[in-house]
Amino acid sequence: MTLPLEGLLVVSLEQAVAAPQCTCRMADAGARVIKVERPEGDFAREYDHIVHGESAHLVWLNVVFLGEAEAAVGLHAHVGGGPGRVGRQELRHYPKLICCSISGYGESGPYAQRKAYDLLIQAESGISSVTGGPEAPARVGVSIVDIGAGLNAYEAILEALIARGRTGEGAEVSISMFDAMAEWMTIPLLNEEWGNPFKRVGLAHPTIAPYGVFKTRDGADILIAIQNDREWRVLADKVLGDAALGTDERFATNPKRNENRAVTDAAVAAVFARHDVEPLMAVLEKADIAFARVNDAKLLATHPHLRRITVDTESGPALMPAPAVVRAGAPRTYGAVPALGAHSEMIKKEFGG
Protein backbone atom coordinates (compact mmCIF):
# COMPACT_ATOMS: atom_id res chain seq x y z
CA MET A 1 0.00 0.00 0.00
CA THR A 2 1.37 3.41 -0.99
CA LEU A 3 1.27 5.93 1.84
CA PRO A 4 0.44 9.59 1.12
CA LEU A 5 3.83 11.04 2.08
CA GLU A 6 6.05 8.35 0.53
CA GLY A 7 9.03 9.89 -1.26
CA LEU A 8 9.09 12.92 1.03
CA LEU A 9 12.33 13.62 2.92
CA VAL A 10 11.97 15.39 6.25
CA VAL A 11 14.97 16.61 8.25
CA SER A 12 14.15 17.67 11.78
CA LEU A 13 16.32 19.35 14.39
CA GLU A 14 14.04 18.54 17.29
CA GLN A 15 13.70 17.40 20.86
CA ALA A 16 11.09 16.76 23.54
CA VAL A 17 7.47 16.68 22.28
CA ALA A 18 6.22 19.50 20.02
CA ALA A 19 8.25 18.92 16.83
CA PRO A 20 8.39 15.11 17.34
CA GLN A 21 4.57 15.14 17.50
CA CYS A 22 4.61 16.60 13.98
CA THR A 23 7.37 14.48 12.46
CA CYS A 24 6.03 11.26 13.97
CA ARG A 25 2.74 11.89 12.14
CA MET A 26 4.70 12.48 8.93
CA ALA A 27 6.65 9.25 9.40
CA ASP A 28 3.39 7.36 10.01
CA ALA A 29 2.15 8.76 6.68
CA GLY A 30 5.18 7.39 4.82
CA ALA A 31 7.70 10.25 4.91
CA ARG A 32 11.35 9.46 5.51
CA VAL A 33 12.13 11.44 8.65
CA ILE A 34 15.71 12.01 9.76
CA LYS A 35 15.87 13.33 13.30
CA VAL A 36 19.09 15.19 14.05
CA GLU A 37 20.12 14.89 17.69
CA ARG A 38 22.95 16.23 19.76
CA PRO A 39 25.70 13.66 20.38
CA GLU A 40 24.24 13.05 23.86
CA GLY A 41 20.77 12.66 22.37
CA ASP A 42 17.36 14.27 22.74
CA PHE A 43 16.96 15.20 26.42
CA ALA A 44 13.58 13.45 26.37
CA ARG A 45 15.56 10.19 26.32
CA GLU A 46 16.29 10.81 30.00
CA TYR A 47 12.85 11.96 31.17
CA ASP A 48 12.27 8.46 32.50
CA HIS A 49 13.20 4.83 31.82
CA ILE A 50 9.77 3.31 32.26
CA VAL A 51 9.30 1.22 29.07
CA HIS A 52 11.87 -1.62 29.04
CA GLY A 53 14.33 0.98 30.31
CA GLU A 54 13.39 3.39 27.51
CA SER A 55 11.80 6.83 27.91
CA ALA A 56 8.01 6.78 27.48
CA HIS A 57 8.23 10.08 25.56
CA LEU A 58 10.78 8.64 23.14
CA VAL A 59 8.75 5.49 22.55
CA TRP A 60 5.62 7.56 21.96
CA LEU A 61 6.92 10.03 19.39
CA ASN A 62 10.25 8.98 17.95
CA VAL A 63 9.45 6.20 15.52
CA VAL A 64 11.82 7.76 12.98
CA PHE A 65 15.36 7.53 11.63
CA LEU A 66 17.83 8.95 14.11
CA GLY A 67 21.24 10.48 13.55
CA GLU A 68 23.80 12.20 15.72
CA ALA A 69 24.47 15.88 15.02
CA GLU A 70 27.85 15.27 13.38
CA ALA A 71 26.21 12.92 10.89
CA ALA A 72 24.07 15.74 9.54
CA VAL A 73 26.65 18.05 7.96
CA GLY A 74 26.31 16.66 4.46
CA LEU A 75 22.59 16.25 4.96
CA HIS A 76 22.21 19.96 5.71
CA ALA A 77 23.98 20.79 2.49
CA HIS A 78 21.77 18.34 0.62
CA VAL A 79 18.53 20.06 1.70
CA GLY A 80 19.87 23.61 1.66
CA GLY A 81 20.87 24.12 5.25
CA GLY A 82 23.93 25.33 7.02
CA PRO A 83 24.84 26.92 10.33
CA GLY A 84 21.83 28.16 12.22
CA ARG A 85 18.18 27.96 11.33
CA VAL A 86 17.14 27.17 7.78
CA GLY A 87 15.03 30.13 6.71
CA ARG A 88 14.30 32.80 4.10
CA GLN A 89 17.87 33.05 2.80
CA GLU A 90 18.01 29.32 2.08
CA LEU A 91 14.53 29.40 0.52
CA ARG A 92 15.82 31.76 -2.17
CA HIS A 93 18.31 29.07 -3.24
CA TYR A 94 15.92 26.14 -2.75
CA PRO A 95 12.54 27.46 -3.87
CA LYS A 96 10.76 24.14 -3.33
CA LEU A 97 11.94 23.74 0.27
CA ILE A 98 9.31 23.81 3.02
CA CYS A 99 10.71 25.07 6.33
CA CYS A 100 8.78 24.93 9.58
CA SER A 101 9.97 26.26 12.92
CA ILE A 102 8.33 25.81 16.31
CA SER A 103 9.14 28.32 19.04
CA GLY A 104 7.76 29.40 22.37
CA TYR A 105 6.58 32.92 21.53
CA GLY A 106 7.29 33.37 17.82
CA GLU A 107 10.17 34.67 15.76
CA SER A 108 9.92 38.27 17.03
CA GLY A 109 8.58 40.24 19.96
CA PRO A 110 9.80 40.83 23.53
CA TYR A 111 9.63 37.14 24.56
CA ALA A 112 11.10 35.64 21.39
CA GLN A 113 14.30 34.52 23.13
CA ARG A 114 12.65 33.13 26.26
CA LYS A 115 12.85 29.46 27.03
CA ALA A 116 9.41 27.93 26.70
CA TYR A 117 8.26 24.56 27.99
CA ASP A 118 4.79 23.09 28.09
CA LEU A 119 3.85 24.04 31.64
CA LEU A 120 5.34 27.53 31.30
CA ILE A 121 3.08 28.21 28.30
CA GLN A 122 0.08 26.71 30.09
CA ALA A 123 0.65 29.37 32.72
CA GLU A 124 1.53 32.26 30.40
CA SER A 125 -1.39 31.69 28.00
CA GLY A 126 -3.99 31.44 30.76
CA ILE A 127 -4.78 27.76 30.18
CA SER A 128 -3.95 26.96 33.81
CA SER A 129 -6.22 29.77 35.03
CA VAL A 130 -9.31 27.98 33.67
CA THR A 131 -8.13 24.51 34.75
CA GLY A 132 -8.58 23.03 38.21
CA GLY A 133 -10.93 23.83 41.06
CA PRO A 134 -11.88 27.06 42.85
CA GLU A 135 -8.96 26.79 45.24
CA ALA A 136 -6.10 27.00 42.70
CA PRO A 137 -5.10 26.82 39.03
CA ALA A 138 -3.88 23.46 37.76
CA ARG A 139 -1.77 21.94 35.03
CA VAL A 140 -3.55 20.06 32.28
CA GLY A 141 -2.30 16.55 33.00
CA VAL A 142 -0.82 15.89 29.56
CA SER A 143 1.50 18.02 27.41
CA ILE A 144 -1.33 19.92 25.78
CA VAL A 145 0.85 22.84 24.60
CA ASP A 146 3.44 20.64 22.90
CA ILE A 147 0.80 18.42 21.34
CA GLY A 148 -1.24 21.37 20.10
CA ALA A 149 1.80 23.13 18.61
CA GLY A 150 3.01 19.92 16.98
CA LEU A 151 -0.35 19.24 15.35
CA ASN A 152 -0.54 22.86 14.17
CA ALA A 153 2.86 22.35 12.55
CA TYR A 154 1.69 19.13 10.88
CA GLU A 155 -1.38 20.92 9.53
CA ALA A 156 0.70 23.84 8.22
CA ILE A 157 3.21 21.56 6.50
CA LEU A 158 0.48 19.53 4.82
CA GLU A 159 -1.08 22.78 3.53
CA ALA A 160 2.32 23.85 2.22
CA LEU A 161 2.76 20.50 0.47
CA ILE A 162 -0.63 20.86 -1.22
CA ALA A 163 0.24 24.41 -2.31
CA ARG A 164 3.64 23.28 -3.60
CA GLY A 165 1.91 20.63 -5.68
CA ARG A 166 -0.02 23.41 -7.42
CA THR A 167 2.62 26.12 -7.66
CA GLY A 168 5.96 24.34 -7.37
CA GLU A 169 6.95 26.78 -4.64
CA GLY A 170 8.07 26.01 -1.11
CA ALA A 171 7.14 27.89 2.03
CA GLU A 172 8.37 29.05 5.40
CA VAL A 173 5.94 28.63 8.28
CA SER A 174 6.36 29.39 11.97
CA ILE A 175 4.38 27.93 14.84
CA SER A 176 4.32 29.54 18.28
CA MET A 177 3.39 27.41 21.28
CA PHE A 178 1.87 30.53 22.83
CA ASP A 179 -0.26 31.19 19.73
CA ALA A 180 -1.50 27.61 19.74
CA MET A 181 -2.84 27.99 23.28
CA ALA A 182 -4.02 31.58 22.93
CA GLU A 183 -6.34 30.47 20.13
CA TRP A 184 -7.72 27.69 22.32
CA MET A 185 -8.39 30.33 24.99
CA THR A 186 -10.78 32.24 22.70
CA ILE A 187 -13.96 31.48 24.67
CA PRO A 188 -12.54 32.41 28.11
CA LEU A 189 -10.94 35.54 26.59
CA LEU A 190 -14.16 36.72 24.94
CA ASN A 191 -16.10 36.08 28.13
CA GLU A 192 -13.54 38.08 30.11
CA GLU A 193 -13.63 41.00 27.71
CA TRP A 194 -17.43 41.03 27.55
CA GLY A 195 -17.97 41.07 31.31
CA ASN A 196 -18.42 37.39 32.16
CA PRO A 197 -15.05 36.14 33.51
CA PHE A 198 -14.63 32.37 33.79
CA LYS A 199 -14.45 30.75 37.21
CA ARG A 200 -12.71 27.46 37.88
CA VAL A 201 -15.25 24.82 38.87
CA GLY A 202 -13.26 21.60 38.50
CA LEU A 203 -15.20 18.78 36.84
CA ALA A 204 -18.43 20.75 36.67
CA HIS A 205 -20.14 23.24 34.39
CA PRO A 206 -20.24 26.87 35.52
CA THR A 207 -23.80 27.55 34.28
CA ILE A 208 -25.56 24.18 33.78
CA ALA A 209 -26.85 21.93 36.57
CA PRO A 210 -26.67 19.10 37.31
CA TYR A 211 -23.48 18.80 35.31
CA GLY A 212 -20.68 17.38 37.42
CA VAL A 213 -19.21 14.47 39.35
CA PHE A 214 -21.09 12.30 41.81
CA LYS A 215 -19.70 9.39 43.82
CA THR A 216 -21.20 5.89 43.85
CA ARG A 217 -21.52 3.60 46.87
CA ASP A 218 -18.37 1.70 45.88
CA GLY A 219 -16.32 4.88 45.47
CA ALA A 220 -16.41 5.43 41.70
CA ASP A 221 -16.85 8.92 40.26
CA ILE A 222 -19.55 9.40 37.61
CA LEU A 223 -19.82 12.61 35.60
CA ILE A 224 -23.32 13.37 34.31
CA ALA A 225 -24.32 16.12 31.86
CA ILE A 226 -27.94 17.31 31.89
CA GLN A 227 -28.20 19.70 28.95
CA ASN A 228 -31.88 20.67 29.02
CA ASP A 229 -35.08 20.52 31.04
CA ARG A 230 -36.38 17.42 29.28
CA GLU A 231 -33.27 15.49 30.27
CA TRP A 232 -33.70 16.70 33.85
CA ARG A 233 -37.23 15.28 33.94
CA VAL A 234 -35.96 11.95 32.59
CA LEU A 235 -33.18 11.86 35.19
CA ALA A 236 -35.62 12.64 37.98
CA ASP A 237 -38.07 9.95 36.90
CA LYS A 238 -35.88 7.12 35.56
CA VAL A 239 -32.75 7.47 37.70
CA LEU A 240 -33.58 9.42 40.85
CA GLY A 241 -36.98 7.71 41.17
CA ASP A 242 -38.84 10.92 41.92
CA ALA A 243 -40.73 12.28 38.89
CA ALA A 244 -42.03 15.19 40.98
CA LEU A 245 -38.50 16.66 41.08
CA GLY A 246 -38.73 17.11 37.32
CA THR A 247 -41.50 19.68 37.58
CA ASP A 248 -40.72 21.13 41.02
CA GLU A 249 -40.45 24.90 40.47
CA ARG A 250 -37.08 24.93 42.25
CA PHE A 251 -35.59 22.63 39.59
CA ALA A 252 -37.88 22.75 36.52
CA THR A 253 -35.60 25.06 34.48
CA ASN A 254 -31.84 25.25 34.22
CA PRO A 255 -31.64 28.80 35.65
CA LYS A 256 -33.58 27.55 38.70
CA ARG A 257 -31.44 24.40 39.03
CA ASN A 258 -28.33 26.54 38.79
CA GLU A 259 -29.70 29.00 41.34
CA ASN A 260 -30.42 26.05 43.65
CA ARG A 261 -27.33 24.10 42.62
CA ALA A 262 -26.48 22.90 46.12
CA VAL A 263 -29.92 21.33 46.58
CA THR A 264 -29.99 20.02 42.99
CA ASP A 265 -26.60 18.34 43.36
CA ALA A 266 -27.49 16.99 46.80
CA ALA A 267 -30.56 15.23 45.36
CA VAL A 268 -28.44 13.53 42.71
CA ALA A 269 -25.59 12.72 45.11
CA ALA A 270 -27.93 11.04 47.60
CA VAL A 271 -29.25 8.60 44.99
CA PHE A 272 -25.87 7.88 43.39
CA ALA A 273 -24.41 7.10 46.83
CA ARG A 274 -26.91 4.25 47.22
CA HIS A 275 -25.77 2.40 44.09
CA ASP A 276 -22.60 0.66 42.93
CA VAL A 277 -21.03 1.90 39.73
CA GLU A 278 -21.87 -0.91 37.28
CA PRO A 279 -25.62 -1.13 38.01
CA LEU A 280 -25.85 2.67 38.10
CA MET A 281 -24.17 3.02 34.70
CA ALA A 282 -26.63 0.49 33.29
CA VAL A 283 -29.55 2.59 34.58
CA LEU A 284 -28.07 5.79 33.16
CA GLU A 285 -27.47 4.17 29.80
CA LYS A 286 -30.99 2.75 29.64
CA ALA A 287 -32.42 6.20 30.43
CA ASP A 288 -30.19 7.73 27.72
CA ILE A 289 -28.55 10.12 30.20
CA ALA A 290 -25.18 11.52 29.10
CA PHE A 291 -22.52 10.29 31.51
CA ALA A 292 -18.91 9.21 31.78
CA ARG A 293 -16.90 7.38 34.38
CA VAL A 294 -14.00 9.47 35.63
CA ASN A 295 -11.26 7.02 34.73
CA ASP A 296 -7.60 7.02 35.57
CA ALA A 297 -4.78 5.46 33.56
CA LYS A 298 -5.33 2.08 35.23
CA LEU A 299 -8.96 2.00 34.09
CA LEU A 300 -8.03 3.36 30.65
CA ALA A 301 -5.73 0.35 30.20
CA THR A 302 -8.76 -1.97 30.17
CA HIS A 303 -11.22 0.38 28.45
CA PRO A 304 -13.29 -1.42 25.77
CA HIS A 305 -12.68 1.39 23.27
CA LEU A 306 -8.92 1.66 23.73
CA ARG A 307 -7.22 0.74 20.45
CA ARG A 308 -3.52 -0.07 20.59
CA ILE A 309 -0.52 -0.43 18.32
CA THR A 310 2.71 -2.31 18.98
CA VAL A 311 6.02 -0.50 18.55
CA ASP A 312 9.36 -2.24 18.77
CA THR A 313 12.10 -0.75 20.90
CA GLU A 314 15.69 -1.76 21.45
CA SER A 315 14.62 -3.60 24.59
CA GLY A 316 11.35 -5.15 23.47
CA PRO A 317 7.86 -4.36 22.15
CA ALA A 318 5.70 -1.62 23.67
CA LEU A 319 1.92 -1.30 23.47
CA MET A 320 0.67 2.24 22.93
CA PRO A 321 -2.66 3.92 22.17
CA ALA A 322 -3.29 3.99 18.43
CA PRO A 323 -3.42 7.27 16.48
CA ALA A 324 -6.94 8.66 16.39
CA VAL A 325 -7.61 8.41 12.64
CA VAL A 326 -9.18 5.15 11.46
CA ARG A 327 -8.74 4.52 7.75
CA ALA A 328 -10.51 2.00 5.58
CA GLY A 329 -8.30 -0.64 4.00
CA ALA A 330 -5.07 -2.18 5.22
CA PRO A 331 -3.88 -1.02 8.65
CA ARG A 332 -0.72 1.02 8.89
CA THR A 333 2.49 -0.38 10.28
CA TYR A 334 4.81 1.50 12.60
CA GLY A 335 8.59 1.47 12.59
CA ALA A 336 10.84 0.62 15.49
CA VAL A 337 12.35 3.17 17.89
CA PRO A 338 16.09 3.16 17.07
CA ALA A 339 18.92 3.65 19.50
CA LEU A 340 20.81 6.93 19.53
CA GLY A 341 23.06 7.08 16.47
CA ALA A 342 21.75 3.81 15.04
CA HIS A 343 21.62 5.30 11.54
CA SER A 344 24.47 7.80 11.74
CA GLU A 345 26.87 5.84 9.55
CA MET A 346 24.16 5.20 6.97
CA ILE A 347 23.34 8.92 6.85
CA LYS A 348 27.02 9.92 6.58
CA LYS A 349 27.50 7.48 3.72
CA GLU A 350 24.33 8.53 1.88
CA PHE A 351 24.73 12.29 2.22
CA GLY A 352 28.51 12.62 2.38
CA GLY A 353 28.82 13.81 5.99
Give a description of the structure.
With 353 residues, the chain is of the alpha/beta class. The protein contains 15 helices and ten strands. It has helices at 18-28, 56-61, 73-79, 88-93, 118-125, 144-167, 177-184, 186-193, 229-239, 244-247, 254-259, 261-272, 277-286, 297-300, 344-351, and strands spanning 9-13, 32-37, 65-68, 98-103, 171-176, 211-215, 221-225, 290-293, 308-313, 316-321. The strands form four sheets. Strands 1-2-3 form a three-stranded parallel sheet, with helices on both faces. Strands 6-7-8 form a three-stranded antiparallel sheet, with helices on one face. It has a two-stranded parallel sheet with strand order 4-5. Strand 2, helix 2 and strand 3 (65-68) form a beta-alpha-beta unit. Helix 3 packs across helix 15 and helix 6 packs across helix 7 (177-184). Residues 65-75 and 77-87 have low confidence and may be disordered.
